[in-house]
């Protein structure tokens, strides 16, 4: 995995991000590599289901086989993310609003699967100018970069951080 952002730009990537389990797979692979078996156990899902979703993620360029290992009777593949962050450019998000809804559904599924209450949850509606929205979006983007939030390795518990600024109906 590199330290760059993966820009979501095509139909295959929209499809890949459109399922909560695929988002959970990406989250599980965040900062580590895992086998099909590892993912099946971590996500409490059937191996065949995980294999299908991994194939979709691979075809979209979001995961790759990072190494293989010979085991009795075959070869074990280890999967990893192709980039440390996935970013949906504003123009793309505006063209495919359902993508944001799917991502939020994936976050909700991940929160429920954790079995723990979120450490912080806030929803605020405000009337903002376009300039204010752009300034807030930049602050949130900058606050979630790998430089701003370095991984503590094996020391701490993994947390998800979901931020968005969206037009309310």
Please explain how this structure is put together:
It is a single chain. This protein is α+β, with helices and mostly antiparallel strands. The protein is built from seven helices and five strands, in the order E-H-H-E-H-H-E-E-E-H-H-H. It is globular and about 60 Å long. The protein starts with a strand and ends in a 26-residue tail after the last helix. The model has no long low-confidence stretch (mean pLDDT 83).
Calculate the mean pLDDT score and round it.
83
Radius of gyration: 17 Å
- Widest sheet, order of strands: 2-4-3
Report the end-to-end length measured between terminal Cα atoms: 38 Å
Poorly predicted ranges:
none
> How much helix, percentage-wise, in residues?
40-55%
How many beta-strand segments?
A: 5
Strand content: 15-25%
Oligomer: single chain
Count of individual helical segments = 7
**Which of globular, elongated, flat, extended, rod-shaped describes the shape?**
globular
Largest sheet: 3 strands, antiparallel
Give the topology string: H per helix, E per strand.
Answer: EHHEHHEEEHHH
The helix/strand class is alpha+beta
Care to give the gist of this entry?
The protein is α+β, with helices and mostly antiparallel strands and 169 residues long. It has helices at 11-17, 20-28, 36-43, 47-59, 90-95, 97-114, 130-143; strands at 2-7, 34-35, 63-71, 74-81, 83-87.
């Amino acid at each position: 995995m590199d330290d760059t952002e993966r820009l979501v730009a095509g139909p295959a990537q929209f499809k890949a991000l459109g399922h909560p389990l695929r988002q959970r797979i990406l989250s599980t692979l965040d900062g580590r590599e895992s086998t099909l078996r590892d993912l099946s156990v971590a996500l409490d899902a059937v191996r065949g289901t995980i294999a299908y979703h991994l194939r979709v993620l691979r075809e979209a360029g979001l995961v790759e086989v990072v190494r293989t290992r010979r085991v009795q009777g075959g070869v074990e593949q280890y999967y990893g993310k192709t980039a440390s962050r996935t970013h949906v450019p504003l123009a793309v998000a505006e063209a495919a609003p359902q993508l944001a809804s799917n991502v939020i559904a994936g976050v909700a599924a991940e929160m429920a699967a954790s079995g723990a209450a979120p450490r912080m949850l806030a929803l605020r509606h405000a009337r903002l100018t376009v300039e204010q929205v752009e300034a807030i979006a930049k602050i949130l983007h900058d606050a979630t970069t790998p430089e701003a939030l370095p991984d503590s390795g094996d020391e701490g518990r993994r947390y998800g951080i979901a931020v968005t600024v969206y037009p309310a109906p």
